[in-house]
Design brief:
2 copies of one chain form a homodimer.
Chain A (H helix, E strand, L loop, with lengths): L16 E2 L16 H13 L7 E7 L8 E6 L2 E5 L15 E4 L2 H5 L4 E5 L5 H4 L13 E3 L1 H14 L5 E3 L5 E4 L2 E7 L8 E7 L2 E5 L17 H10 L3 E5 L12 H14 L5 E4 L5 H13 L3 E5 L1 H12 L10 E2 L12 E5 L9 H6 L13 E4 L8 H13 L3 E3 L14 H11 L3 E5 L3 H13 L14 E5 L4 E6 L4 E5 L2 E3 L4 H12 L1 E7 L11 E5 L4 H21 L7 H20 L4 E7 L2
Parallel strand pairs in A: 4-6, 6-7, 7-8, 12-13, 13-20, 14-17, 14-18, 15-16, 15-17, 18-19, 25-27
Antiparallel strand pairs in A: 1-9, 2-3, 2-21, 3-4, 5-23, 9-10, 10-11, 11-12, 21-22, 23-24, 25-26
């Protein structure tokens, strides 16, 4: 059961959420960046050790990879965790549902963990929580939007947990840590950066962000606050790196709105379908506004679209006139030009509303000639093929399709180079660790920081499981802890070394051959071995194959002295003979199971 | 054995290759495009049938997909085939090596096929030929570069065939067809477009092309010839569509050279690695020139890099000073700044030179700090992940990596919108069929043609297997023939409906459970069923699982009346019981094989 308690900054003191206070402790003004002097100072400080214990930052996910973001920040016997995401499995993990972080380190230090602070509600930041909160019984802190999305998930898994609502400008005290929440723009409402005050200095964790000068919710990434904190002194910046390879600035979300409005004008009279992430509430907000302006009724299609818009409306993140919303069953009562259907499936997900519509498998809606479908999203790397398959299928049905290659119908939620530089300049950190990216992103982000005057020695390239130690005036790598992935496989949890995955991989590429030999029924000179293959032989060749395989085994058995036999030896021999026979015949080496039955 | 006979236009008469002749037959001047008048004329012509038989164009690949391009053009009892490509299998085809076209139609019409004409030597245009030429014993026509690449392939497969060399401006007579070869620029040397004269009019097939105003070989896409043919009259344009979604013009290959030269300057003193397609001879030519200018010795790494550069040099498509080439074993004798290593692996192929270097598995070369690696190629859609894995691994080894996101180190070989418009304008075809693209590309290409004044009725959207009938003044869809894919699987050839693929898919996602029950050994009340699973149960749970599965089966058997049993009924019952047991336990439905042994 969810004990979500809506404690805003007005009533949050009970749960450690305080109103912002003037901060005097533990922050000191650092001089403007002077690399040379700083290095001297650093070396000095290595020699003259301070009394304070160091802060340890442990990277349990999200570095050297896109996905499953999770970072532990530790001081003395206290740990706070930032985010707890998942990653989606790719082809290399056949049959795996989800990939979640290995949190052995947190479990081993269970008693230290004070809470989990969430930057925002995307799957790669909260999707692993059902597999974390079942082991760590600690409170979770996030914005209403983040917690609404988390609660959907936790209800499904039937896990009890405690959630505490926070908002930008709130202060949260967790043991020796004090966390200030900073408003940032991103492709989901309710996104936060964090300023984590520790006894040895402030850490800024950007979460995922962009700088949008025309934000839909009217409230910008709080650049001023980043600047103020920079002025007071930031010891360490942990900054996301997703778009570090892209020059310039990301497009404003408002620009997408203008493009969409143009398309509504262009396609007046036609039935409009728009697919986007259900969690991209600002995109949906714009679409609802535009629909109202163009006098179109809106129908939602797809489970997450219905659930999330409802949840977002309930907490005030999405506002619309209920009279303009109609049930998807009722669309036939309206003319084409009076309809907007907002649907899931922007990533070509097989079971989503739009994918089913494209393949004629969505009973309530038939897409065809005259319809217009807008993909208001970019394919996430790896999803391109699935997305284009849906686009092709829609075109074949006669629909017109607009996607990001053709019009500015999507804006990224991640900061490009100049935005990243803005945050670096404003926070002016003593030390920097790039996060949230593959190694190439982190590396480029390091170069960006160096180009702005940072010294390479003050930057650490994080790796999965790396523990970094930070003092007031130094930062250093301090070894590695257990970290990695857990694979959610139905009810099972595996890892990369699991037998199951390796077996599936071989099965998928080479198939399997089962040979059963009933030793007890051996008559004169023959055992009539029983052969079944799957994924090896094409039907038309199956009969001849089986016959030949049986005679190959039978002749191998005849040559073996069966009176003094060792069953393992017989099995190994049959396996070898069979494997060679199959390879010669098919150029494949299937998995071979040899079963000897003895009475 | 290859009977490749180098018959250029000077000596080609014997094999039907003639010098260009003034053409008067079968071509008539068409007026400038006047859609309305033309339609009237068309309708008239439907009524007043001409005496001539129609030409049939059959699409056996490359439409509605990227890859395995192959088109049959037929008049009376003669067929010529344009290209014979392959496609690379993606995750949906586990264990499949290659995808080649289903040529049932050509086999059924074997006696009609006069020859295969190749536009260029990329895999998606020639890679299927070993699986075509083993069934169709017809001559193949192509440029020296195309035939050199084909010959490598055919030698490997040990298939005898006859190859005839052609060059731009050559004319080839094949029965009622006369084929004129037209020089085009593309990302491989020796690329051709075709003008196929038929009794009912000219067909232009562009092959793959771009318009490069600064081509490396000094010879441009022959725009003048396209214009002359347009003036004489083009009945049908078959034009490639790969980059139809990209605005403007493609970048010149020379521009890539300038970028590369800048990088050579920037990284003077460092060891340079450049990875590109071995068949991109013009890229390699530029790199060899630049290396010479910067006094770097060149070493080739990777089998195809060595083979193809050698073949290209032999036929004069690549020229370099042999003294500047060194063996990869000898690189240690030179300073870092004196070396350029050209290697395979630009697509992150697992066994390529660069991938092995990145993972420290290439014994002759150790990449590390101070080295610079340039990916002079874009990831082909679907290869992104593999490419970025290699980039990340190289960064981790300390190398600097330059790829297309960071600098203009690659130029596409395909025409963008303005280039496509140029060809449409110059050839001014009566009818148009977009080819070489997914449905969305073909659709956009159709729209491009309409925007230039064509009437939608004069454009046909081709589909796999579609047969199009063309007369002097009409074009129409005329049904479908068998077409699709054949899957090269070791020595086997399957298709989408093959049992093998379906079985592998289930095996890969759910695993397999084999239950063997020896009915002959049934003692009192028990059969001791034997259970093996693969890809289902994690090791730590395996023992308990097997025990429980056995008791589930044993109790199911006890409930069955075994005196009057039907073996199939018992098997079905065990399968059901076992499947339900496993689903409850793992949320998976593995393949279940039940084997009853009876004495």
């Amino acid at each position: 059961m969810n004990e979500n308690q809506n404690l805003t900054h007005r009533e949050g003191a009970n749960f450690g959420v305080e109103k912002k206070q003037p901060q005097t402790k533990q922050r000191k003004q650092v001089s403007n960046r002077q690399p040379k002097a700083q290095n001297l100072q650093k070396e000095q400080n290595f020699a003259v050790k301070t009394n304070k214990k160091p802060v340890k930052i442990t990277f349990l996910g999200g570095v050297g990879e896109i996905g499953k973001n999770i970072t532990a920040i530790e001081y003395d016997d206290e740990i706070i965790v930032v985010d707890g995401g998942l990653a989606f499995p790719t082809g290399e993990f056949p049959g795996i549902d989800l990939v979640v972080p290995d949190i052995s380190y947190l479990i081993a230090n269970k008693s230290k963990v004070k809470g989990i602070v969430l930057t925002h509600g995307h799957e790669d930041h909260i999707g692993g929580l059902p597999y974390i909160l079942n082991e760590l019984k600690v409170p979770v802190y996030g914005t209403p939007m983040t917690l609404a999305l988390l609660d959907n998930k936790m209800q499904e898994h039937r896990i009890e947990y405690k959630a505490v609502t926070v908002k930008p400008k709130n202060l949260l005290k967790l043991g020796n840590f004090q966390i200030e929440f900073i408003k940032v723009s991103h492709s989901i409402a309710g996104s936060l950066a964090l300023c984590i005050s520790t006894p040895v200095g402030n850490i800024i964790h950007t979460g995922d962000f962009k700088i949008d000068f025309e934000p839909i919710d009217g409230s910008m990434t709080d650049l001023t606050r980043f600047g103020e904190l920079g002025k007071k002194g930031v010891n360490l910046l942990l900054c996301e790196s997703t778009n570090v390879c892209r020059k310039g600035y990301s497009m404003s979300e408002s620009n997408v709105g203008r493009t969409l409005e143009g398309l509504f004008e262009k396609f007046a009279g036609k039935r409009l379908f728009v697919s986007t992430f259900a969690s991209n509430v600002h995109r949906l907000q714009q679409l609802l506004w535009i629909a109202e302006k163009f006098k179109r009724k809106v129908a939602f299609a797809g489970r997450s679209m219905i659930n999330i818009t409802e949840a977002a409306a309930k907490i005030g993140e999405l506002s619309y006139n209920r009279e303009n919303i109609i049930d998807i069953d009722k669309i036939d009562k309206y003319a084409d030009g009076e309809l907007l259907i907002l649907c899931t499936g922007s990533q070509g997900e097989p079971l989503s509303a739009l994918t089913r519509m494209a393949h004629g498998e969505f009973p309530k809606v038939k897409i065809g000639e005259g319809d217009v479908v807008i993909f208001s999203a970019s394919p996430i790397p790896g999803n391109e093929k699935a997305v284009y398959n849906v686009i092709n299928a829609l075109y074949k049905k006669g629909a017109d399709v607009i996607y990001d290659e053709l019009a500015e119908v999507h804006a990224s939620g991640h900061a490009c180079q100049e935005e990243l530089k803005t945050i670096h300049a404003l926070t002016n950190p003593k030390f920097f660790i790039p996060i949230h990216g593959e190694y190439r992103h982190l590396k480029r982000h390091k170069e960006l920081a160096i180009s702005m005057g940072m010294n390479s020695r003050d930057i650490i390239m994080p790796e999965l499981g790396m523990q970094v130690e930070m003092g007031e005036n130094y930062i250093k790598q301090a070894g590695f802890v257990t970290a990695g992935i857990r694979l959610v496989d139905g009810y099972g949890l595996g890892d990369l070394e699991s037998n199951v995955l390796k077996e599936r991989k071989q099965l998928s590429e080479e198939g399997i051959c089962v040979a059963v030999i009933n030793m007890s029924s051996s008559g004169e000179g023959g055992f009539e071995p029983f052969i079944i293959t799957r994924g090896v032989v094409y039907e038309k060749e199956a009969e001849a194959f089986t016959e030949d395989a049986r005679s190959v085994i039978a002749s191998a058995l005849r040559e073996q002295d069966l009176r003094s036999f060792d069953p393992n030896e017989i099995k190994a021999n049959i396996k070898k003979v069979l494997s060679n026979f199959i390879y010669k015949r098919t150029k494949r080496r299937p998995m071979i199971l040899t079963i000897l039955l003895m009475a």
